[in-house]
Amino acid sequence: MKSLPPPQRKLLGPNDLGALFGKPKPTAQYMRGERSSTFFGWHPVLRDARDDVRAAYWRASARTIDMIQNSGWIAGIIRRGVATIMGTELRLALKPDYEALGWTQKFSANWSRKVERRWEAWANNALECDAAGLWNIHIQAAAALRSYFGAGEWVAEYPFISRPQSSTRTKVQLIPAYRLTQETNGVDLFQGVRVDRHGLPMSYRFRLTQPIVDPGEVIEIPARDSANRPRVAHVYEGDISQMRGISPFTPVLERVKQYDELAGATLKTAIIQSLFGATVTSPSPTADVLSALQSPDEQQRDGDPTIDTYFRATDEWYRGANIDLGGLSRLAHLFPGEKLEFLRSETPNSNYEPFSKFILREIAACAGFTFEDMTGDYNGATYSSIRMSTTTNWPIQLHRRKHVVAPFYQAAFECWLEEEIERGTTPFPGGLAKFLAFRKEATSATWRGAPKPQADDLKWTNATEKLRNMGVITDETICAEIGTDWEDVYEQKARERDLRKKLKLPETIVAGSTVADEDELDKPGGEDDGETGDPPKAAPKKPARNKEKRQ
Q1: Residue 252 near residue 60 (C-beta atoms within 8 A)
Q2: Is 216 in the same domain as 79?
Q3: Count of beta carbons in the 10 Å neighbourhood of residue 357
Q4: Could you tell me the pLDDT band of residue 200, with boundaries at 50, 70 and 90?
Q5: Are residues 55 and 126 in the same domain?
Q6: What was the pLDDT predicted at 533?
Q7: pLDDT: is 205 or 489 the higher one?
Q8: Which terminus of the chain, N or C, has less C-beta within 10 A?
Q9: Quick one: the chain helix, strand, coil %, rounded to 5?
């Protein structure tokens, strides 16, 4: 039998040791510290935004609404947000595409002014515009904006309702966002919104009662009717594939709750530290100390000494131990072994204010407002810092005005104007058929709201005046900045000028112009009444003077 050869042994070199113990290879990649404690347990998954919203919608909406109802900070910032975004109202500035409609610019301007006046009369009458007859269109728009902050969306229906109290049938009916069902089939229905294969909303499913209290009846309303008139408007902001909105406060719900807990714990600690405490210091057992404070009769009557016995003894002592000096001064002869010490609260400490402000800054940033707007604390703020923060956050409010509030007005305006043209109260060249064919061209409009907040009106005015003198901005831009309509301003100035002349009052001097500039409007061809749509007549030319005769 052959013996096996002895095993061959080889000395390991430096490279072999590295391979043996798994020496890491040089790499270049994202998140190289995957095994660190920072990423431990942090494993989110990727899925469509509509699935994320559907999973968190009920809890996020309920918690946000509860927060709005119980947090002064959040309720205050929403009220301020509504005032900043829309002020008292959004005003219609109708700008139809007159070239596509085959109109002249002058006729388009005259027709737009008439429509704007009739719109204001309808929008400010609650019986005309509200299905419930309670709110005008501006109060409803503010409610829709608050619904956006609470649930991340607003929903409205635009039904036809005939009633003897109003002359029009077009009405607006706000619907609580939570009544839009969460039904999903994964094919064409997502959270109560039925869509086509491209994602266009075709209809909406509503639950007539509160879903948690009573399943109730579910109805389905088309998004538009056969004439493309809006039946339901649903507005929200979101990501790709998202079908429902979610509150913008959702990312900071935990922070708001933490702030409430911090404030509550700090207050409780301060109250506890302010309580007066009495102690007895003695090397003897507690029972012996309390027994020593009692008389023999008291010991027999009360049995085992208790803390109540001690308090009764001290009470009897203090009844005869006060030395009153009159007024507010008094001496107290304390019980033997007691020491009176007045304590002061050590809470909140020096770290409370910076930390609480840090939480409030995060909440304000998530909501899209400045810290000063949210808290009203301008301590340490300068003109430049306030102006910069306002300039940075103002586009957010303009975005919300245009894409959250303006669609509410626009849908109501389209429905109202269609009825106006159908009834014949607002003439439209070509009639209702042409309006339906050119709806978007005829209803093109902008909605003007509250002006941009200014830290210093005088500095802003001086800067605006210089830009106007340079010819780089117009009166329309300036009026839009301060929340007015330039055509209204011009018309009002003309009326005031005529009344001054009638009453023989002196003319006012406008910066950058003279009285003679206004008088030019009285010359032939210098003013157009804007009613006929005809171009203004040219002023007659003056005959040229004969230079020879003048000499």
Answers
A1: no
A2: yes
A3: 13
A4: very high
A5: yes
A6: 46
A7: 205
A8: N
A9: 50, 10, 45
Q: Which of 417, 447, 477 is the last residue of a domain?
A: 447
Q: How many domains does one find in the chain?
A: 2
Question: 49: buried, middle or exposed (CB in 10 Å: 19+, 13-18, 0-12)?
Answer: middle
Tell me if 548 is assigned to some domain.
Answer: no
Cα-only R_g, the chain: 38
Top-confidence residue, 105 or 271: 105
For the record, the structure tokens of 362 come out as 């995060």
- Please count the other Cβ atoms lying within 10 Å of the Cβ belonging to residue 435: 23
Identify the domain boundary among 430, 447, 464.
447
- For residue 192, the tally of other CB atoms under 10 A from its CB is 22
Token reading at 275 = 């309580």
Which has the closest alpha carbon to 124: 139, 114, 113? 139
Of the listed ranges 138-142, 328-332, 372-376, 535-539, the least confidently predicted one is 535-539
**pLDDT band at 328; cut points 50, 70, 90:** very low
In a domain, 131, yes or no: yes
Spatial separation of the C-alpha atoms in residues 201 and 179, rounded to whole Å:
17
217 and 302 in one domain?
no
* Residue 222 sits in the same domain as residue 295: no
